[in-house]
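ok so I'm stuck.
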Amino acid sequence: MSEAVNMDKPEVLIVGGGAAGSVFAAHLAQQDRSVVIFEAGDERKKEELYSSQVWARRLKNVEQPTPFIADDPGLRLNRGEGTGGTALHHYAIWPRYHPEDFFEHSQYGKAMDWPIGYEDLRLHYDRIQKEVGIAGDAVAEKWRPQGEPYPLPPVLLSEHGRTIARGFEKLDMHTAPLPMAVLTRPYNGRDACLWDGWCDAGCPTGALANPLVTYLPIATKAGAQIKTNVRVSKLIIDNTTEKVLGVEYFENGERKEQYADLVILSAFVVENVRILLNSRMPGTDYSVGNKHDLVGRYLMTHPSLLFTALFEGEDIQNYLGTTGGQLLCQDAYDKIGKHKGFGSRQWNIAMAVKPNDIIGLGMSRSHIFGKALQDFMQKAAHGMGNMIGMVEDQPVWENRIELSGEKDANGVPAVHTNYRVTKDALLLIENMRKEGHEVLKLAGSNDVMESQIFSQHMMGGTIMGSNESNSVADSFGRVHGMRNLYIGGASLFPTSSCVNSTYTIHALADRSARFISKNWSQIV
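replied:
not stuck anymore, here's the structure
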């Protein structure tokens, strides 16, 4: 075990201990680097998590909410503070990005190219899935890119999933077990899932792979320290070299400074951007990484539709499973397929139903009451099925995170989002709307409902690229023009694909952490 971290000046300061930050911390601490993680929210422990929807909402509350202009990019759904960050309450749906996701401009003349391809991440995907435990069926998942088979068998398939799958089959569409970072048998000292469907409450059993049970224990065992309830406001920049000296932060309203040899920004997308925008490059009129007005640009989400359907006369066991679902369909992943609009789309099928889901459905039926309402609720409790359609969003210059002109409680300039769902995404959503109704009716439901469009998974804002004129960071997350400042997380993504982000966040962080270790002497 490493010696105690020198809090006066650790070698590595990581801002945010979520999906990316925990991977950086584990790897670098194991390389005998002194590591400190700064987390804006409260300390969280697995034993203190509760399986309830009230607790799930509490995990998503933040001290300083971010206002939005135009469309809501899903800030309330996708954000969280405290040990483990947003990844503490994520749903653990872990598909891989496809090869075509990385070169959309070169292949289709649309969107952007990443500075890396699928093969650059393939071994990191393989390593991560073995370390955390991913359940799935690589053969049944016929759309899956090349890679090692999943280390665990698929997640539970109840009558809920089987019922909806019949609708896809009647349209000659294919479903496969949803790849999930959830344990289907004991693995690496963790217990298997109970299938009680409380994933977004933080998984108190430890079956779901979140930082509290995966990489943070590895990091702290190797000597890393986690400091909670500290909010980083800006970077401290050396006036004479292209180096970061450390960060300014606030603790209990008091301004403090923390110095380090290397700083890694791996906070939530909005916070990574906010810190950079508030960090002025000495002797210039622009902020760190923002010489070409790129910090905050190209904000993306996954526009989505939730479908619910009632199935008569049977108990489909909708209360079993995971919050993420049971089955996957990526038949419409082709960027320029038969569907309208450019981009990929995906179905996540048969999410576990909870009491508030039923209550919400009942409230949508304002015309019934008394015994009729009671009968309806009883039927819904046993026969309500669901699935989510998720589509690719496009990187658009105008969609951005920017300084708002307001200040937070510490007097630090705040930000807002200025985002609109792109035209291509709206066209893809229309395909999902039509297809969703067809699938569920063919599955046997005569009562199909759809939600309004909502957004999942914020990406972009500090995109990676080949040079400083087209990006904020390089392929390893190093901010252009800064020797010892790195970024981790979904803010690096130049395109969104249609698949959940967390697996790719882990793979990118693993690649970057290993690069930093190998090149330490040149970085610091």
